[in-house]
Amino acid sequence: MKNRLLLTLISTLCLSACSQSITRIENELFSVTGKKYQNIYPSTHQGSGPHHAYDEVDFLLPTEKKVVEQGMISFAHSGIDKTFGFEYEKLLSPTFEISKGNVGHITWLGHASFLIQKTNGDALVTDPVFGEFDGYGWLGSKVIDDLNRLGEAPIKADQLQFVTGVMVSHNHYDHLNNDSLNGFNDGTTLYLPLDTADDVNYQQGPIVEMGWYTQTQHNNTGLHFLPANHTSSHGAFDTDESLWGSWLMDDGKHKVYFAGDTGYSPIFKDIQQKVGDIDVCLMPIVAYPRGARKMHMSPEDAVQAAQDLGCKVFIPWGYGTWALGFEHVNEPLRRLERAVQDMKPNFIVETLLVGQGVNYAELLSASK
Question: pTM, whole model, 2 decimals?
Answer without folding.
Answer: 0.94
